[in-house]
Model the fold of this input.
Amino acid sequence: MNVAQIVQSLRASRGFGHKTDIAGVLSSLGNALPGGMRDLGQAVAVGDDCAAIADHDGYLLFAIEGMVRDFIDARPWFAGYSAVMVNVSDIYAMGGRPLAVVDAIWSDGVGQAAEVLKGMAAACAAYGVPIVGGHSNARSDHAQLAVAIVGRARRLLSSFAARPGDRLLMAVDLRGAFAEPYPYWNASTEAPPARLRADLELLPALAEDGLCAAAKDISMAGALGTALMLLECSGVGARIDLDRIPAPAGVPMARWLTAFPSYGFLLAVREEDAERVTARFGARDIACADIGVLDDSRQVLLSGAGETALLWDFAHDAFIVPQAQRAAHDAIHHATHIDA
Done:
């Protein structure tokens, strides 16, 4: 596929579709969001990986994830594991460390929920995060699962802190395989728990050492959809080089760009710090590469093999932030303080 075909494929993908739906959700909530966030001392606007509420010694982080029904039906253990894993990733993507999770699970009988719960328990053991409560309904006609998490951060990494001139880094654990036939790149379930925790500790360490202020974990929208969320929240554009994206051997780029890795992050880093940040991931055998540069264009251009194509123009199309609420989001972003 050439660059223009990759752009067309991404814009039509399920992952992009799920993320662009967020703009409609925010529009429905309307003006209920901005004032409430200020009242809570919310340090970042909606659009980040977690809510971040300032307190006396840093930030309380709060996030939630839900699993789609077909995934739960087909891979119940891995769905339970993933529900915890993605929440843990959200906390670390904000520069924090997780404290505990709670779950809400619906099933047709206790037996149907058993594998999901075993997967959750395995992930909690691997990442060292306890389940401290939740809600269950074993008399539902189908399975559903949502997991929420709390954590704490001393210094934030945020989707709203990227600036023109920053380098866009992609860090991803390539020591895994697809959980076929799904787009989930699993580098977690077979890894030693101590290594999983130490690899994630890189994120808050970068924040606390002042080497990075902006980051986002790679979600179901894939690396480039996640980049769009980060860039839109920060009000910037970028030029991204597909040829620089770290990828597993033998995996077609079109598939890799829609993958949801169990360990994958995008970071916007000052040019003078990019080499040091890259080296920290490399020291732990995590692939990390400089894949592009941020600018003030509010356009995202992709290049590769001598070709260039426009992936997104935020001036004309919202990705996750509706145009009508852009001013409100910008006002909150500029009125709040993020330690960097």
